Amino acid sequence: MAIYHFEAKVISRGKGQSAIASASYRSGEKLYSERYNKFNFYGRSVAPKTFILKPSNAPDWTLDRQKLWNEVEKIEKSKNARLARDFILALPSELNEEEQEELLLDYCQENFVNNGMVADIAIHRDKDGNPHAHIMTTNRPFKENGDWGTRQKKVYHYDEQGNKIYDKEKKTYQCSTEKTTDWDSKERLKQWRENWAIAINNSLEKKGLNITVTDKSFKEQGKKELPTKHLGSYAHQLELKGLPSENGDINREIKKYNQLLYKQEQLEKENEEKNQTNPFTRHFTPKEKRILSDLSKELNVFISFEKLEDKKRMLNNWKNSALAKQAMTNGQEQEPILSKIKDQKEAVEQAEILLNKEAQRFISAHYPKVNTNALSPYMARELVDKTIHNEQLFDLKETEQILFKSQQQELSHNLSLLLKDPYISVRVMKEKLNKQEAILKTFCAKHDIQLENKESVARQSDEVKKVFQGIIQPLARYEMAIKAVHYYHETTIKEHLPMIDSKQLNGLQKEQLCNAILYFGDQLEEKVVIDVLNDRQPMKYDTATKERLLTGLLEEGHTHLSEIEKQFFENPSMKVMFFNECVQTKDFSKAGKQTLKAVFDKNYTNVKDELNKEKNVEEKNYYRNNTNNFNLLKGLGTNLLFTILRGESEPERPAHKLKKKKHKNDRGYSPKM
Q1: What is the mean pLDDT of each run of 10 residues along the chain (673 residues)?
Q2: Which of 420, 443, 466 represents a domain boundary (last residue)?
Q3: 485-515 burial code (b ≥16 CB/10 A, e <16)
Q4: DSSP-assigned letters across all residues of 24-84
Q5: Which of 25, 124, 248, 532 has the largest count of CB atoms under 10 Å?
């Protein structure tokens, strides 16, 4: 998996640094320093690939590395002068050397050279799997005639009449200094960092790889774990010899903290799954729970509840572990293939297969006493993942405890998948149910079987009966799954909208109301509920926000979306409902309409399919089935719905029709978001 690393520093005489020595170290060339009257040379086992790029107004001598940095040493006279900027950029290993060079040179030209800087570039490949570039850039601009320019200029202050303001005390005109470039600004550095991520993503996409990187920090990404510090060459050598380094000690403490954080997050996840499924599972027998659990595993691959990026990240964590390297070579070979798969369903299926294979290899290599054939994929994956995070193998007793606990957790985990995205679950199950019913209908017609007539089945051969049984069993499973999700809808509505009698709603109405609860979150208002139950599209966002979000979804890596927005759109249901809202928006600008179409065409064919299904539902007036002019509550009328939601009294209402529940705030509508 491609990594993002962008490090920016300043080479300064005040820190005892020399421009010539720095350039020699990075380029691997022997360079003479006129200032210090000595040669500098740092030999390397693999010679760096070097380039120098200059702006059009810079003199030709800047293409001579020794001349360039000696001239810098001359022009910067201060004892603590800033001599150059120094960048270290990791190159994506998914690209070949030629592609890496093209990516790097284009980036340096656009971001540094076109802004007036000379860029001295050295690509280092002396460490396996760690191709990176060092870039030294000049710190002072050039004039149009090729002479050195100034880094700052004097700006005089003027009065209202346009005259210079004279300071009598200082006996001089008032003035201030202004920098001639923005190279020192935080905004420019941020732009350079962001542009490097964009450049990498564009190169990976050009090669057909479904991989992205981000310039955002862990904090900006909403991650709680702490990043480790860069060791540097000297500290790295110390660590290899078994000697501690300052940053190495800091990194060990960071890893301990991240391990504790991981354990806490795993515990919270387990508790969340239990809390979500316990009220749900107690209504089913043990046999029904096992059936639903198996269905959840089937759904997990079919509709990719677990994000593909999570699977890739898990593979990458495993691959980079010292424990895993000897046992998991196949994953490293297949990961690039996985990255080329554009279809989400196919990619998820391949990721599942790959994760399961790698887990089997890891356990066979490090836990030979464990019978891998007796482990479910979930149990095997849990053991590997916990071992990787622990950074050492567990003993036999600890291993048994982990496997036993994971076996207990698997049911809650699988059932939570079924409930994680009920919007899609019901559609998948209905689709499977319809296909199975069509198979059953064809089979019955072929063998003259009438479902209401047991004798028509009894007279069939044993072989036909066996096939018939195999067709019937999935029907019961799919119906049970749909029933389970509908029960989940009822409990969700009861929790968040206790004054709505969900028993008076048909299945689709319950589903739409549940989706609104998830989609609107703490923005859920009475009007939204009324719109949903009256077959009107509720609007969560204003048009300007919708256009901004569409633009963010169109960008590679969604760099202009907040982390909360990214997480929101990772849920397939939320994405479908957002596009439903966009389709119903009439006042998009011309650019907004084009962006909407571009997002559909580029990335969201699956969403388009879902929207087409929604359109078919509307054409059939499915919302109106089993209702009488949207009189949803036992025929009492829409006006009553307004009354219930507002918590007002209704004199004409028959007392036996609705049981009103008292709320702590004495309002009928009190969602617990």
Answers
A1: 82 92 93 94 88 95 96 92 93 89 96 95 82 93 92 80 82 81 90 92 83 68 65 70 78 73 65 54 55 50 40 55 52 45 55 74 86 82 79 85 78 60 61 82 89 85 86 75 74 82 79 82 82 83 89 72 73 75 86 83 51 39 28 28 32 38 36 31
A2: 420
A3: bbebbeebbeebbbbbbbebbbbebbbbbbb
A4: HHHH---EEETTTTEEE----SSPPEEEEE--TTS-GGGGSHHHHHHHHHHH--STT-EEE
A5: 532
Q: What angle do CA 376, 382, 388 make, to 5 degrees?
A: 140
Q: Cα–Cα distance between 539 and 582 in angstroms, integer?
A: 9
Q: CA 164 to CA 171: how far, in whole Å?
A: 13
**Among 449, 464, 489, which residue terminates a domain?**
489
> Is 443 found in the same domain as 403?
no
Residue 103 lies in a domain: yes
pLDDT of residue 338: 43
Tell me the two tokens of residue 588.
């998009």
Domain enclosing residue 375, as ranges:
284-420
Distance CA 215, CA 116 (A): 24
Residue with token string 């299926």: 349
Q: Which pLDDT belongs to residue 364?
A: 87
> Can you tell me which residue has the tokens 């940095």?
69
Count how many domains the chain has.
Answer: 4
- The pLDDT of residue 515 is 79
Q: CA dihedral defined by 295, 298, 304, 310, rounded to 10 degrees?
A: 100
**Tally of CA atoms within 13 A in the half-sphere of 288 that contains its CB:** 14
Of the candidates 443, 424, 470, 439, the residue with the CA atom closest to the CA atom of residue 570: 424
What is d(CA 480, CA 291) in angstroms, rounded to the nearest whole number? 9
H and E: helices and strands count for the chain: 24, 11
CA–chain centroid gap for 251, Å, is 25
- Output DSSP code: residue 391: T
Spell out the residues 6+ positions from residue 127 whose beta carbon is closer than 8 angstroms to its own. none
Query: Contact, 496 vs 673, CB < 8 A?
Result: yes
**Considering the entire predicted model, what is its pTM?**
0.48
d(CA 362, CA 368): 10
